[in-house]
Amino acid sequence: MSFYHTVFNTVFKRNSVFLTTIFAGAFVFQAVFDEGVNKWWEARNKGKLWKDVKLTIPGAGEEEDDE
Amino acid sequence: MLSRLSLRSGRSLGLATTVARSFSSSAHTLKSTYDSPDFTKYLNKSKGANPDKTRDYTYLMVGAYGLVSAAAAKSTVDAFLSTMSASNDVLAMAKVEIKLGSIPLGKNVVVKWQGKPVFIRHRTTDEIAEANDVDISTLRDPQKDSDRVIRPEWLIMMGICTHLGCVPIGEAGDFGGWFCPCHGSHYDISGRIRKGPAPLNLEVPHYEFVDEAESVMIG
Amino acid sequence: MVNYISKPAYKAVAHFGQITPTAFKGYFTSLIFWGTATVFGLATFTEAWPLFQKNVYSKIPVLGKHWQKEVDPQDLPI
To answer: Where found (chain A) (predicted)?
Structure first.
């Protein structure tokens, strides 16, 4: 039994298993892709984000009363 | 698989008269005597060609396409649905917090919540007793005072007359509560309708006390 | 005297609609597999649903931290 034969028998042979693999993959892919894009975006915009800017504003933690 | 392949190649040599269909493993098709076309000359006959590898590759591509499509379909649906949810600026206006320490005993305060007035009254013990004293069976909209307040000393309700939506005046009317100047509805010290055209008691919004009743969160 | 059986003794098989235990046993494995596929299909499409994120997805071992939202308490509206 070659490797490719094993792969075929375990994943592709039953349509239900094939579909499960696709959906499980899609579920994981969404999370990983989202996380990856966020990481990239935050790295690209480093220094401009609120979490970076917040530290440089004096008294940002104090409450402002607007009433 | 191998036996079927050999059967098929056997046919091309004129050894077999019937050929089972390949690419299907069900018993039905294996037993089939249907004379299917001979695809032998289209098979990849290059050295080291592995039919399992080719087949895996095809299915992998189909699967990957399905995976990306599923994720894309979900994202599309999500994008449309999320346009229907409340934006953050709306959510920020959905609640209002009022510090209660600045309201003296026996005084009214009107605050704005979602563009509407909300009455807050710091009731005295006499007023609480008066509100509880009422025989609720005689009321137009029977409601116990304890159903209208969380803490009896703080009466919090919408400042909108249940008749036609005017804003009643505090500490006025025949029952020591609120009086609506538009059509003369009298509300008692628990905000219940007692006299006049209004059909219902003043509405009590959802609220909760925070920080040991230091302040109240409406909404 | 030979005891002839005049007719076959019929016995009703327990069934639910057209489904008998034997038929169900045949389908059982398939149903399990398709059920799993359905669960993952639903999971894919409810991934952005806050209710599911909070109660289910944030509790997945490694991947779960993607759905755990940590906001600096300083940034929360009052």
So the answer is: Mitochondrion inner membrane
The mean-pLDDT minimum among A4-13, B1-10, B86-95, B180-189 falls in B1-10
Q: What is the three-class DSSP state of B151?
A: coil
Beta carbons of C33 and A17 less than 8 Å apart: yes
Cα C70 to Cα C78: distance, rounded to the nearest angstrom: 16
Closest-CA residue to C32 (of B94, B113, A16): A16
For residue B110, what are its two tokens? 């009107």
Q: Could you please state the CATH topology (level 3) that the domain comprising A3-56 is classified under.
A: 1.20.5
Closest chain A C-alpha to B177 CA, distance in angstroms: 26
For residue C32, name the pLDDT band (cuts at 50, 70, 90).
Answer: very high
Interface contact A39, partner C, CB < 8 A: no
- From chain C, the residues in CB contact with B211 under 8 A are none
pLDDT tens digits for range B155-196: 888 888 888 888 888 788 788 788 888 888 888 888 888 888
B partners (3+ CB pairs within 8 A) are A, C
Q: Residues of C with CB below 8 A from A63's CB?
A: 78
Predicted local confidence at residue C78, as pLDDT: 54
Q: Say what the pTM is.
A: 0.60
Instruction: Kindly report, residue by residue over B115-150, the tens digit of the pLDDT.
Output: 888 888 888 888 888 778 877 788 888 888 788 888
CA atoms of B170 and B158, how far apart (whole Å):
12
Chain C adjacent subunits, 3+ CB pairs under 8 A: A, B
Chains B and C form CB pairs within 8 A to the count of 15
Whole-angstrom distance, CA of residue B113 vs CA of residue B203: 13
DSSP assignment string, A4-40: HHHHIIIIISSHHHHHHHHHHHHHHHHHHHHHHHHHH
CA pair distance C23, B4, nearest whole angstrom:
30
Side chain identity at residue B21, one-letter code: R
CB-based contact B70 C41, cutoff 8 Å: yes
pLDDT of residue B13: 46
